[in-house]
Amino acid sequence: MELLLVDDEAGIRKVVGITLADMGHTVHQAANGDEALEVFRRVRPPVVLTDIRMPGMDGLELLRRIKKDSPDTEVILVTGHGDMDVAVQGLKLDACDFISKPAGPEVLEIALKRAEDKIALRRRMREYTENLEELVRSQSEKLVEMERRNAARDAVEGLAQAMGGLAGEISGEFAMFNALPCLVSIQDRDQRVVSVNRLYRERLGDRVGQPGFAIYAGASGEGLESPVARTLRTGQAQKSREGLFGPDETLAAVTVHTAPIRGAGGQVELVLEMLVEASEVQRLQDELHTTRQRYQQLFDEAPCFITVQDRHLRIQAANRRFRQEFGAPEGGFCYQAYCGTERPCFGCPTLKTFEDGQPHQSELTVRGKDGQTMNVVVWTAPIRNALGEIEGVMEMATDITELARMQDHLASLGMLIASLSHGIKGLLTALDGGVYKVNAGLRSGNQEMIDSGWQKVTGLISRIRGMVLDILFYAKKRELQLRAMPAADLASQVAEAVAPKAEKQGVAFSAEIPANLGEFMVDEVVLSAALVNILENAVDACADDKTKPAHEVAFRVRPDASGVFFEIEDNGVGMQPDTLARLFSVFFSTKGSRGTGLGLFIAKKAVDQHGGRIGAVSEPGQGSTFRIWVPRQQ
User: Fold this and answer.
1) What distance in Å separates the CA atoms of residue 4 and residue 202, rounded to the nearest whole number?
2) What CA–CA distance (Å, rounded) separates 360 from 365?
3) How do residues 346-366 score in pLDDT, each as one tens digit?
4) CATH code linked to domain 172-283
5) Where are the alpha helices (DSSP H) in 171-196?
């Protein structure tokens, strides 16, 4: 694209000109407003990029003159510090955009892309307008010609066609209305029945040639207020409730619909009359009511929490069990009802279903209206309209709190066994070494060796005692020991704990921990252990990946108004969707015999205990990202 660059500083023109040329643009340059006008009138570029502050003619005056000469040219203003008011004046003068100095390549590219889009849109609108005008002119000529040719034919054939159809109906050929579950007749301008359908004949007899209004209760001799008479008088369709006399003189309520049938001259020649018995309407309404009752009963009695949500996660309907547990939230957001938060949950399955139209499953920790937490498994399914478009998502959640408690007990048992098998094995090995040293000292009479060996033995015995007490402690339910601490301090401790392992595995490790994270109430031991576990898993995922030349684990922390976000990203082996769905399940491990399947389960439990949220996204072969949010106050 050709463009004109205007700036009174030669250095800026040179640097920006090179940048624009590298982007593939043809650049013309000018050092002031007068020179710019001369160049513009010679080459007519579609875009002008001009500085506002220039000696002589400034950028605003140049904008005015260019727009007066060529309104379709797009002008981008380059402003300095304190030029915001001037830039606003430029926008009022129809400037395309403004950018601030110094303008980097990304900013220039965005501004030029906007200008190109406006030029392309204007071109398409011009082409569309021209094509539309030509199409209107052509179609108008065709319509005039068609009307001229058909006017005479319509006048002759219209009445013949109506009378031909009427002749067929008079002879009894009324097949198109015979399948309807209502009484249908056609009456002439004298309200005499011309033809009827099968149901009309079965219910009221063959009344062809008789006055149609005679079947109504209270009908006068001329039937001036019958539905057909009103249609003949007004030329409009009518609807009314009437009393109907049958052959046995029984009275029934009917809803009557009438519609005019016009001849070639536009006059009402015939009237179509349709009668729907109230009993039939009531039967259909009863069936509909019964169907709705059955649906509502199934909806309310289902042994799970069911909601129907729109694209904004606003609850449109909820079953009885959901209302009992979480209140009556119709019109509210699901994440407010479930968790009392102001944003959707990580990895929300309902949003995923809106995106791809497929069912999804997820595990969540939610909080009932009584404040008690529960674990649920969530399934989602799309609700489509007649066009196949997704207009809602049904979300079903099943309470698995008892199962989660059993998993907790199993996890505690697994931790106990794992700690015993690994810890005591190592301590006994070391204890053997201490005893050997004592025996060697006794044999050689070396008192220093005896003292050193005995000191080692007593120290190991003390450690065994402490480890057993710790195992007993962790095997029981442990309440959080909360204290206020700077989030940056905890994050730094976690990063320092993981960095040596990453270095040993040859994985680059980076930590972005701003100082303005603020304080939060946490159990430092529990939460740091959870974060370290996830970071070490990320390092292992990179070490297991042999397809990339280099690997990196990034640890990022950022604050928000009510909590702290932790993000752990790696470019390791990644995970399949079925692995991702089971990631936080107890005893599920992707490491085979190298893992216990407890780490991520315990990490999620730690985050849940803090009232936070944890989620993960992953692509096989690309890597994984874990996101953890912890509130500042419990």
Assistant:
1) 86
2) 17
3) 778 899 999 999 999 888 888
4) 3.30.450.20
5) 175-178
As to burial, measured by CB atoms within 10 angstroms (0-12 exposed, 13-18 middle, 19+ buried), residue 6 is buried
DSSP 615: E
How many CB atoms within 10 Å of residue 41? 12
Contact 77, 95 (CB under 8 A): yes
Q: Where are the domains of the chain?
A: 2-121, 172-283, 302-399, 404-475, 483-631
* Cβ–Cβ under 8 Å, residues 628 and 566: yes
High-pLDDT (> 70) share of the chain, %? 75
* Most confident among 292-296, 349-353, 586-590 (mean pLDDT): 349-353
Higher local confidence (pLDDT), 476 or 340? 340
3 state SS of 406: helix
Summarize the chain as % helix, strand, coil (round to 5): 50, 25, 25
Distance CA 443, CA 567 (A): 59
Contacts of 426 (CB under 8 A, 6+ apart): none
pLDDT of residue 417: 57
* pLDDT single digits (tens) 506-543: 999 999 999 999 999 998 888 888 898 899 889 999 99
| Residue from 416, 379, 414 nearest 400 by CA | 379
CA distances from 101 to 58, 204, 446 (A): 16, 89, 81
Cα separation, 95 vs 76, in Å, equals 6
* Residue 505 neighbours by CB under 8 Å, 6+ apart: 539, 540, 542, 543
Q: pLDDT tens digits for 456-493?
A: 667 666 556 555 544 554 455 567 789 999 999 999 99
Report the predicted TM-score, pTM, of the whole model to 2 decimal places: 0.36
For the chain, the first-to-last Cα distance in angstroms comes to: 58
- 293 token code pair: 């009752």
Do 615 and 347 touch, CB atoms closer than 8 A?
Answer: yes
- Tell me which architecture the domain covering 2-121 has in CATH: 3-Layer(aba) Sandwich (3.40)
Which CATH number applies to 302-399? 3.30.450.20
CA 505 – CA 595 distance, rounded (Å): 17
- Spatial CA neighbour of 275 closest among 199, 331, 205: 199
Take residue 394 and report the two structure tokens written for it. 């049904």
Identity of the amino acid at 328: A
Model confidence at 168, pLDDT cuts 50, 70, 90, reads: very low
Do 380 and 349 meet the contact criterion of CB atoms below 8 Å apart? yes
Beta carbons of 482 and 634 less than 8 angstroms apart: yes
The arrangement of secondary structure in 483-631, i.e. its CATH architecture, is: 2-Layer Sandwich (3.30)
Kindly report the average pLDDT of the chain as a whole number.
79
